[in-house]
Amino acid sequence: MKKLLLVLMLAAGFVASAxxxxxxxxxxxxxxxxxxxxxYRNVVIYRVYNQQDAYIVQYAKExxxxxxxxxxxxxxxxxxxxxxxxxxxxxDKGLPSYMSVFYKNGEFYKAILTLSYSRNDxxxxxxxxxxxxxxxIDTLDIEY
Length: 144
Known about the structure:
The chain is of the alpha/beta class. It has a domain at 38-126. It contains one helix and seven strands. The longest helix has 23 residues, at 2-24. The chain starts with a helix and ends in an 18-residue tail after the last strand. 12% of the residues are buried.
């Protein structure tokens, strides 16, 4: 009886390991029909400088570094020949301000700034006089 129980337990172990190997071939998230070509990254925003032609965003990079990126204001407008690339969203209380950068097939698609709409919020600042930025860009080059 003990030998039979031991053989059954070994057989169950072999069957379980064989099934686990088959499941490892396909990732859990890949069911064939729900794979998206859009991905995104979130970064915490420290400050947004309002400049004449662009928003200059200071954000948290990996580690303790701070990155700076310029986002043209014209991206918030929808033109006839191109879609809108910049969106704003009011943040919930208790959450930090953050920026979501979306990519479609590995190329920049759009950015969403989630922050307080009130210009009295400390996140907003006026760009220093003489600060030069290139507002004629078509894509967002951001380092994480």
